Amino acid sequence: MADKSFLNWPFLDDKHRALSVSLEAWAEAHLTDLDHFDTDQTCRDLVRKLGEAGVLMHSGAEDGVLDVRSLCLIRETLAHHDGLADFAFAMQGLGTGAISLFGTPTQKSAWLPKTRSGQAISAFALTEPASGSDVANSTMTATRNGDHYVLNGEKTWISNGGIADVYTLFARTGEAPGAKGLSAFIVTPDMPGFEVVERLQTIAPHPLARLRLTDCHVPVSAMLGVPGQGFRIAMSVLDVFRATVAAAALGFARCALDEALQRVATRKVQGAPLFDLQMVQGHIADMALDVDAAALLIYRAAWTKDNGAPRVTREAAMAKLFATDHAQQVIDKAVQLFGGDGVKSGEVVERLYREIRALRIYEGASDVQRVVIARQVLASIE
What's the rounded Cα separation, in Å, for the pair 220 and 222? Predict the structure, then answer.
């Protein structure tokens, strides 16, 4: 039985507790034996099912107010059951986060009903071959030409690339050097010049792609916000969703702890349960500590944002850094406790071992989070 005592923490309200209970029941009924080989079709099916169940209603908001605690609870629960389910939900939120926060009424009405119902799949196209965490050095260009912008350049490691119906994409419009010269656009794959040039394979399969835009004409009306506001838009979206990455890592870690507890309680060594060994008890204690500490940081960040903080850069960075790094450690300990079975293809802990690694890279790598935290701390003494 997974530990649910955290639901009684003061960070959460009754609506969050009810959401957790209902989503847990839905996940148990619908997230078994998913196909992890045909990830494109599985993700399409998951988005449709999440939409039909009403879960995707939390992924966007026409009033621009996202309940971050709900987002975290959903990602934690889905990740506990299946990484692809978490991925499918997360990308609906991240992909249209900029539309929720900065879109015009027309832009919101055009896309949010579709993405929140599961009728359309969304993507967030920020990373480029030569600029990952260094967003300010983006080189994709967007040149004004009458009532269109002409986009040229490449994006890579784009989640849902190749299956998305709508992309929030960032390009350099050149109002100023660096970060101040970026803008955000709503782009669809049917626009001439839009091309998926490579599908990317990873240790934990997800729909990923490298995109190329060649003289791709995007209407001026597809710009989000105003020219030069792209960096602010991207950071505002990541500020909301970074804590949810930590929540997904927490879901993986809770799953690993649950699997480890069952293993040490049932596996016998020299006639006694594995749990009787003091070294094993030490590992379990460390795992439980990491899980609770991560949860506290995550729901502090989410609660702070939901209670009106304009930015939670420090809190979200701390949550993501700690939760992802320590989930890796929790899962590694679970694999160790399983012995040879821990690296056997098809075992839950083996899948978790592959799935957790990417979370320490995307939406701000761990070392980048350390820089963010340090700068936030140092700014307080200047």
Answer: 5
Beta strands in the chain (DSSP E): 122-125, 141-145, 148-159, 166-172, 182-187, 194-199, 208-219, 223-224, 268-269, 272-273
Q: pTM (2 decimals)?
A: 0.95
Decide if 107 contacts 99 (C-beta within 8 A). yes
From 76, 315, 350, 363, the catalytic residue: 363
Contact 62, 100 (CB under 8 A): yes
Neighbouring CB atoms inside 10 A of 113's CB total 13
Asked if 183 and 230 touch (Cβ cutoff 8 Å), the reply is: yes
Instruction: Give the residue among 142, 157, 143 at the shortest CA–CA distance from 196.
Output: 157
Residue 363 is a catalytic residue: yes
Q: Mean pLDDT by 10-residue block, N- to C-terminus, for the chain (382 residues)?
A: 82 95 96 91 97 96 92 97 96 95 96 97 96 86 97 97 98 92 97 97 94 98 97 92 96 97 92 90 97 97 94 94 98 97 95 96 93 93 78
